[in-house]
Amino acid sequence: MDKYSTKWIKVSEPYPHVLHIQLARSPVNAFSQEFWQSYGGVFDSIVADGVDVRAAVVTSVFPNIFTAGLDLGDAGALGGDGADTSRDGARSSLAMRKKLLEFQQAIGAPERCPFPVIAAVHGHVIGLGVDMISACDIRYACRRLQIDIGLAADIGSLAYLPRITGNHSLVRELAYTARTFSAAEADKIGLLSKVVEGSQEQVVKEALELARFISTKSPIAVSGSKHLITHARDHNVPENLAYTGAWNAHALMTNDISENLRATKTKTKAKFTPLKIPSRLEGAKL
């Protein structure tokens, strides 16, 4: 998987069809423009190439921090290089908006993937880190986690958190105060699905094991479930039921059902075909 690794992102395959995506910009994973563009590009390239990925885990290589958020020393990280101050305010604002939308697109890349993306977080998660983990499907954290949402979040937190947690009161409190909160509080409001006792090593281990288990399931069923859950989040119940009916009208025609029945009957491992035939890489493998 070295093909998809970049200067500050390491991509490996610890189990078949499972990716481990590690943030590795010393010293604290502060996000410059190049870093966030690279982050989104890793996911988009893997999907575009049709690589047979069934699940992925995002972690940090640094034991005490997931990310410190934006690199405030990099003007491009904040979209500063997109604003032309020689023009009037409206035109400069349009340039800034374009940069912010590109930023949102990059950080939201995990949600666009047809496979589940699990965030395994530890240490400190500051500012942009909250946007990042909110765009992932599942969030595991170690007990010593500390989260700081930051102020004026514009890359995803304010859109995701009310829907993830269902607690508008607390989301507003956290956004207005930018106070740090713990793994216990994040777990209580539903931001996390599991708090793991131990260190970085343990939470990463458990997240990778979850990804490995998901990878043994039907890719059609998992991908369809992800798509329909996201649709349900953004639509009302009647709309989602109608959409699910249309979606499953074709999804239930999959050979994965008969393959799963065969594997169950013979007590062997199911062998599911990839979701997508590689387009840019003939016979691409992890």
From TrEMBL:
Keywords: Fatty acid metabolism, Isomerase, Lipid metabolism. One of its GO terms (biological process) is fatty acid beta-oxidation. GO terms for molecular function: delta(3,5)-delta(2,4)-dienoyl-CoA isomerase activity. Pfam families: ECH_1 (PF00378). Pathway: Lipid metabolism; fatty acid beta-oxidation. GO terms for cellular component: mitochondrion. Belongs to the enoyl-CoA hydratase/isomerase family. This is Delta2-dienoyl-CoA-isomerase.
